[in-house]
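Subject: Protein record for review, amino acid sequence with backbone structure tokens
How to read it: Take the token row as a discrete description of the fold.
Enclosed: The protein record, placed directly beneath this head.
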Amino acid sequence: MTAFTRVRTWLDTISAAAAWLVLPLALLLFAQWPLRDLVGGGSRQANDLAQWIFALYVALALRHATRVRSHLTAPHSRR
């Protein structure tokens, strides 16, 4: 097994595991309102952590989409 193949396999494993990042991301985004309104603090930290998780999730999702030869595109407007 070459080094390239090992790295690719490692990244494939990380990409597959990253799908579970959606759950803590949704939880942190949902928790912002109760933290701000009921607790009175922590909503900024929850937002900051959610942004980090989202950035990591999108980076790995784009890598996975490229790997499986899928395309992520914005919808086109028709005239």
The radius of gyration is 17 Å. The chain has a mean pLDDT of 81. The first helix runs from residue 3 to 18.
